[in-house]
Design brief:
The protein is of the alpha+beta class. It has 15 helices and 14 strands. A hairpin with a 2-residue loop joins β4 and β5. It is globular.
């Protein structure tokens, strides 16, 4: 019998730097361009300070509708003709929103990036936003959300946000809106948000690819030349909390054979000094296969296929959440273990071996995360929206390699808040509600007919 080769040890982290890029001001607009030699595809993307966090009260989800409506007819082309124009260039249209930004653009062959940028300018500045197109996009989005909310994990996330943040906070509702907010959204609400936020001074053109021979000034002028008006309505969102202390919300689904468990609380914004320590600590807790939560609930107890936890950091605030899907009959013991692991990290910190595993993993995947043109463009967009320094990603990786055990354990103590745990269980309440008080998770609210 041949003896198996010894398991290879990880090598030292390789040197890596985020691709060099330049900033320009063209026709009064901001341009960021990264030259990536040898890449046959390029990206032209407009990154706008028009994310969900800035939506007016009662218009939750409007940013996503604006993003989706830009390609539904512009500058004399209807939706079909706009799509054909992109396909003729070999270009792929992308439109998305998150809490902090709205991003639209094309990935196209380098030879066609100028024409794709002209099509992008039409979508951003000259979109029709016709009544029938807006109605169709709204209807499709409402149907989509209905399908999404059939998933218990989505219900758990919505319930957690609603329990953590006050009813007045934008963070209390999903970033893409919900059926009631979208059903109440009028055509003029959509056009008003577009007119208020899609302006030169709130936008940055990001270009990435093999830019040898590409006229960056011309691309910038295509987007920004003649674009007038200033953005309005950009006040920071209300991120007030609903309450303090432990509390539990049950979303009752009679007959469910699984329970979705989610435990969390408010989290800090992205721009914090201990971000690297906090996020690396979160990897140890619930961000890797070898994390505390996964080892306990999956490997040791066999309660779940996976258990996860981490921080969602945004420009103005954030959320911590740990989650797992378990069989209904083990809801209580699995939840007890989930809570106990978070408390243990908060109280005792992590080990030096866990730090080394997390540091090696994070530093190792860092270059992979920026291996393509689109990820590089996305990183540039993050720099633009968050106001990061040009060397942000280089410094971030360096700090990951240098972060200490004391820093991780300080972050565990500072950023995990067991006394304010909000627990959400989506499942058949009859099977576990009587045993829930034994866990000491505070007052219990049962939602029987949806959120």
């Amino acid at each position: 019998m041949t003896k198996a080769a010894p398991r290879p040890e990880p090598g030292a982290p390789r040197n890596w730097r985020f691709p060099a890029f330049e900033r320009r001001t063209v026709a009064g607009g901001r341009v960021m361009a990264a030259h990536l030699p040898g890449r046959p595809l390029a990206v032209a993307s407009l990154v706008v300070d028009a994310g969900a966090a800035l939506e007016p009260r009662g218009n939750e989800g409007v940013a996503e509708i604006v993003a989706r409506s830009m390609s539904e007819g512009a500058a004399g082309r209807d939706a079909y003709e706009f799509g054909v124009a992109g396909e003729q260039l070999g270009a792929s249209w992308r439109a998305s929103t998150d809490w902090d930004s709205l991003r639209v653009g094309f990935e196209a062959p380098v030879s066609e990036i100028a024409a794709a940028t002209a099509l992008l300018a039409d979508a951003v500045r000259r979109a029709d936003f016709a009544d029938d197109a807006l109605d169709r996009v709204l209807d499709e989005r409402i149907d989509e959300i209905g399908i999404e909310r059939s998933q218990p994990a989505v219900l758990a996330g919505e319930a957690l946000a609603a329990a953590v943040f006050s009813a007045a906070s934008r963070y209390a509702a999903p970033d893409g809106g919900d059926p009631s907010s979208l059903d109440a959204l009028g055509r003029e609400d959509i056009r008003r948000y577009r007119d208020a936020r899609l302006r030169k001074d709130s936008a940055t053109l990001v270009v990435a690819g093999d830019l040898d021979g590409v006229d960056i000034e011309a691309l910038g002028a295509t987007i920004f030349d003649g674009w007038e008006g200033k953005a309005s309505g950009g006040a920071a969102p209300d991120v007030a909390l609903r309450a303090s202390g432990r509390r539990t919300v049950i979303v009752d689904r009679p007959g469910s054979v699984q329970s979705i468990l989610m435990v969390g609380h408010e989290g800090p914004p992205r721009a914090i000094d201990d971000y690297v320590a906090m996020s690396t600590m979160a990897l140890v807790l619930g961000g890797m296969f070898s994390s505390r939560l996964n080892m306990k609930l999956r490997e040791e107890k066999g309660y779940a296929y996976g258990a996860f936890g981490g921080f969602d950091t945004r420009k103005h605030g954030g959320v911590f959440a740990a989650r797992a899907a378990v069989q209904s009959e083990v809801t209580i013991p699995a939840l007890a273990d989930l809570v106990a692991e978070i408390e243990r990290v908060h109280q005792e910190g992590v080990t030096s071996e866990e730090l080394e595993q997390a540091r090696a993993y994070r530093a190792g995947v860092f270059p992979v995360n920026f291996a393509g043109v689109m990820p590089v463009a996305s990183g540039l967009g993050d720099i633009a929206i968050q106001g990061f320094a040009d060397d942000h990603f280089d410094v971030l990786r360096s700090r990951i390699l240098d972060v200490t055990l004391d820093e991780l354990n300080a972050a565990a103590h500072e950023r995990l808040h067991p006394d304010d745990f909000v627990t959400v269980i989506v499942g058949d309440a009859a099977g576990f509600v009587d045993d829930l008080p034994s866990l000491g998770l505070g007052s219990v609210e049962i939602v029987r007919d949806g959120l």
